[in-house]
Amino acid sequence: MPRIPGARRRLQDNPVVGHKRVLLAAPRGYCAGVDRAVVAVEKALDLYGAPVYVRKQIVHNVHVVSELEQQGAIFVDEVDEVPSGAHVVFSAHGVSPAVVNAAAERGLRAIDATCPLVTKVHREAVRFSRDDFQILLIGHAGHEEVEGTAGEAPDHVTLVNGPDDVDSIVVKDPDKVVWLSQTTLSVDETMETVRRLRERFPNLQDPPSDDICYATQNRQVAIKKVAEQAELVIVVGSANSSNSVRLVEVALEYGAKAAYRVDYASEIKQEWLDGVSSVGVTSGASVPEVLVQEVLDDLAGAGYQDVQEVKTAEEDLMFSLPKELRKDITGKQDARALGGRGR
Question: In 3D, which of 154, 150, 207 has the Cα closest to residue 177?
Fold first, then answer.
């Protein structure tokens, strides 16, 4: 169950050497795929009424899941927990063909909210398996996205958890090997894994385009810039959000003296701020901006009122909603059909 936020303790405005400021990373927060998935559940509730079932967390954020539960969404681990004939939404992380088939066998009315960038990786797995390539899938074992992608070509996929796995990889034909990746990984670590794979398998093929999603890359680039100037970095995001966890790691690697992940502002500890004049703030790709604003409000109360945005990219990508949800209850085209919230 999602954790309830703790009581908002007032952070103290203790003196420090230097001018207190916040370096606010941009881009941060919701990406187009997350926006599309969350709106898909909201729209399904509008159209079909509660309950609407969702397989796994629609996105990896405890606040978003809790909010949707309050609106009538029911989250389940597997489709066999969904009553026959009910509406079920597949999460942004994607599902394997086995899950799709299991839902169909139960007569479920499935709505696929898989991020289109994840769907792209699925299609690459299908195509390369059809050509009898061995697919080295760089990703984290047990992650829903990895399970969904591997499920597209289970006989052709070998999971590579990171650079340290490379030496133990066994391939059938070193001339027919390709790498794909989970979309939410650390860019730097993934490229290091690919470099080591290529040392072992010089004919390793690249995917047609970079699998790591634009939002993951953009948020990592922004936090690198922030970390160069910040003594402390606070990343808003949930523990099971791969891209949020990576942001903490990247911040530490690129110069921050300390970096912490929080779900809510109430989790910020006073001692983190001791002697700190510059605080970097960012959020993972599944985090609504309201949670970031709460962090900024609490930091302002502690004297960090000067907020300086560190912008490294502009994002304007939008994805259409799943086709079942592009019309409102009267049958007219919904204003949110293209691009979710239309930010």
Answer: 207
